[in-house]
Every structure is written in C-alpha cells, then in structure tokens.
Amino acid sequence: MSKATIHTRTSRTATSLVHQPRRRQEWNGLSAQEILARHPTGKTPPLKVLELLIDLFNKQHTARHKEVSFKTRQERADFLRRFFRDLKHKAGFKTLPDPRNLGERHIKAMVAVWQKEKLAPATIQTYLSFLRGLAQWLGKHGLVRQPQDYGLKPDEYERHEAAERDKSWSAQRIDIDGLLGEMCRFDPYVGAAMWLVRTMGLRRKEAIMFRPHVCVVAFEATGLPLHKRKADLYARIKGGSKGGRERFVALDTPERVAAIEHARTVVSARDGHMGHPSHKLEQALRRFNYVLEKFGVTQKALGVTAHGLRHEVLIDQFESLTGQAAPVRGGAKLPTEIDKPARQEVAELAGHARKRASSAYLGGV
Predict the structure, then answer these.
(1) What confidence tens digit (pLDDT) does each residue in 274-319 have?
(2) Which residues contact residue 156 at a Cβ distance below 8 angstroms, ignoring those fewer than 6 apart?
(3) What is this structure's pTM?
(4) What is the C-alpha separation between 243 and 118, in angstroms, rounded?
(5) Residue 179 to residues 186, 207, 294: CA-CA distances in angstroms?
(6) Dihedral through CA 194, CA 196, CA 200, CA 203, nearest 10?
C-alpha cells in the first residue's frame, strides 16, 4: 500500500462521507454573518441554509478551539439533515423552519418523537448535544436545555466512561504471542500490524497506516521536552489517529523495537504501510477485520476484540508505572501523587488529551 494510495483514499473517503467543502471562493473576505445575510430568511430554502451552516461551522469543536474528527463531522451533519427532514415527516410541522428560526417547540416536538420511538436516553443526549452545537453556530446559547428538562433522568443518559471489566486478552487467558504468531503466518501484514498494537497500544487504523521505515524518528525530532526523554528513537503516530492528533511513542523496550524491525521486514517499500501493497485503505481495514474474525478475535468467539489488545498495553503500562494492579483488575486505590501522573502517561500513550480518558481502560479512580 503506497503512501499515495492511503493518503488519496483517506481524503476521498472523508470528502464523500462529510459535507465539508473548502471555503468557497466567493466567501473570501466575508464573515459568517455576512455570508448568511446573503441568504435572507423566508427567501432561501431552509435546507440550503442548513448546508451553509454545516459548510461554515461543522469543523469546529463546540467547546474548544480546535477541529473535530471527520467521524464527528459526518455524524453531526447527517443528524442535522435528518432532524430537519423529520420535523416535517415525523413531528408534523407543515412548514420546515429556517434553521435560524429554530425554536424550543421544534426541539420539544422531536424529543417527544425520539421518546415515542424508544431511543436510548444516551442517544437522545447525543442528539441534544448536536443541536446545542447548531444553536451555538447561530448565537442562540441556551436554546437547547439540559436533558432533564425534557424528562430524561441523569442516571439514564450520563455515560459511565470508567471500565467496569478487564477487556484485555490476558483476562480471557489467551496465548497472545501464540495467536499473533499464527496470524503472522497466515497474513504477514495483518500479523505485523497486530504486533504494533500489542507493543504500542495503537488503534486499528493507526497500526495499518503506520510506516515502519519513515515513522521512526530521533528524540530530537519529536519536539518533546528534555525531561520526557525515555529513548533515543520514537514512533511517530499520526495517520489514522483520532482527530489527526500526532503523538510519539518511545521505543524504550526490546518488544517495541522488535515489532518495528519485524514490520520493516514485511513492507515492500521504504514508505510502505502495514497493509498489502495492492490494497487501498478501506480494503486493508476489511482484510484486517477478516483475519481477526478468522482467528476468533470477536466477542462471540474468544470474548475479545482487537481493541482489547490496546487495553492490554495500557493496563500493563499503568501497572509498570505504579507497581500495583489497575483498578479494573482489582487494584486498591492509590495515593493521588502516584495515580495521577500514571494515568496522565497512559492517556498520552493512548493518544488522548484528557487524563480522565484513561479510566476507560484502567477503571475508575
């Protein structure tokens, strides 16, 4: 899989799934308000106004000064289009409102529809979050109320992020090295990608898009502060990462170094990725899933997923740092001065910006 193949495929997939064209040339020099003013309420079809809003704002995070992932853009854009269609087809509004005239009665009516359809409270909470984003785009802060104001109970919709059970492979008594060895013999590319997951805790797409020759850099090239230096060489993880966030994983163990060296023997070119050269990214992902299913790496067969191997690495990292079992493995509560930095390091290894994300792997504090 050449660099050009993956890069092109990734860009094309994102464009087809998410309505995110580049800022139009005729918009140059205009603010969002000036652009919208060119499309007066009552004279512009509501769905056209919605597409303008999506084009202008959908890349933005609603709470932070950063862009959201392509997945979030896709889900939010798809939901908003469906929401306005459903106002007419499900909620019974004869006239579709201009998004700028969206009011509380429209939101209440759709919440009633969702409840009648017996959608999960957590799903309704997500929908309200998307609508809250739309309201922010329009400067209507406070338009979308809290879920409890629509009759939802907090214990129904609040997401409990902390892992309640150990999802690692060892928890299911799987012979990890033996199983990965079998995968390597069946499909060297998928097997090598899984060794990268096994040693560095990568996500599936990160492992497939990793270039073992090109993505290994000296510590000096990472931009990390000197006090964080753990090794001379680091793996640069960016392709396939959540939100395109770059991170560096220290090649500070013989296992990580060996996984990189093995991956280099598998790829057919210096800039090769961990997918068959004839495969585009989408095909490589399907092949990855097929191989794992063939070897029983499913909840139904062995009781684990590929992501569970990522859990394995992150839990092991926490235990290596603290010298104690992780909470999800029955470990006792640790002093804050030990627990907090260990969780932060686990979150960074996983590619998360927030320390609390580590609880999804380690269990609650």
Answers:
(1) 999 999 999 999 999 999 999 999 999 999 999 999 999 999 999 9
(2) 121, 122
(3) 0.65
(4) 31
(5) 11, 17, 11
(6) -60
